[in-house]
């Protein structure tokens, strides 16, 4: 299930431009640019959920997003672009001299759907590598991987093991405990 209507090429370009401007301002310690909503397609003003991923020379440099809509799509992109540059605890903040090396990818998410599964083997059969983003929850702990992560972790065992470790649990935890598992899909696009 993709988001209700795919974004047009023009809408994607607008969002990528807003992300780029937000990153440039944030890295220089300046407030985000004001978004002129009068000039935007109405579709971008609807509630939306995104992850913004930054790479440099093919390596991950930052990735921040949300799983539930709480603001317009355009505001979500602006907020998460700046956060990916400055607030991903796994990486040092992006420096101004790195801006030319940063490539931006935006993933627009569908609402997560809970999977009803009996056991780990059943779960393996329900997950669709390359299609599903996966969110796992165990009490207050949670972690997610976008569908793009399947490219690096193509087997369900490996994918789920790394997802458990991201949550702070042992790699085998998903085979021992009954986790809340949700799937979602993304519409992904990036700078040329």
Main β-sheet description: 4 strands, antiparallel
CATH H-tier superfamily of the largest domain: Hypothetical protein ph0010, domain 1
Order of helices and strands: HEEHEEHEEHHEE
Beta-strand level of the residues, as a percent range?
Answer: 15-25%
What CATH architecture of the largest domain would you give?
Answer: 2-Layer Sandwich
- Overall strand count: 8
Regions with little confidence, pLDDT below 50 for 5+ residues: none
Q: How far do the termini sit from each other?
A: 26 Å
The secondary structure category is alpha+beta
CATH class of the largest domain: Alpha Beta
What is the 3D shape?
A: globular
CATH topology of the largest domain: Glycoprotein, Type 4 Pilin
Strand order of the largest sheet: 2-1-3-8
Helix tally equals: 5
Gyration radius, to the nearest Å? 17 Å
Summarize the helices and strands and which ones pair or pack.
Layout: H1 9-27, E1 50-56, E2 59-65, H2 73-86, E3 102-109, E4 113-114, H3 120-126, E5 133-138, E6 141-145, H4 156-167, H5 173-176, E7 180-184, E8 186-190
Helix pairs in contact: 1-2
Write a brief caption for the model.
The chain is built from 5 helices and 8 strands, in the order αββαββαββααββ. With 192 residues, it is an alpha+beta fold.
What does this structure look like?
It is built from five helices and eight strands. It has two domains: 9-109, Hypothetical protein ph0010, domain 1 (Glycoprotein, Type 4 Pilin); 113-185, Dna Ligase, domain 1. It is 29% helix and 23% strand. The chain is of the alpha+beta class and 192 residues long. It has a four-stranded antiparallel beta sheet with strand order 2-1-3-8, covered by helices on one side. A four-stranded antiparallel beta sheet has the order 4-7-5-6, with helices on one face. Strand 5 and strand 6 (141-145) form a beta hairpin. The chain has helices at 9-27, 73-86, 120-126, 156-167, 173-176; strands spanning 50-56, 59-65, 102-109, 113-114, 133-138, 141-145, 180-184, 186-190. It starts with 8 loop residues before the first helix and ends with a strand.
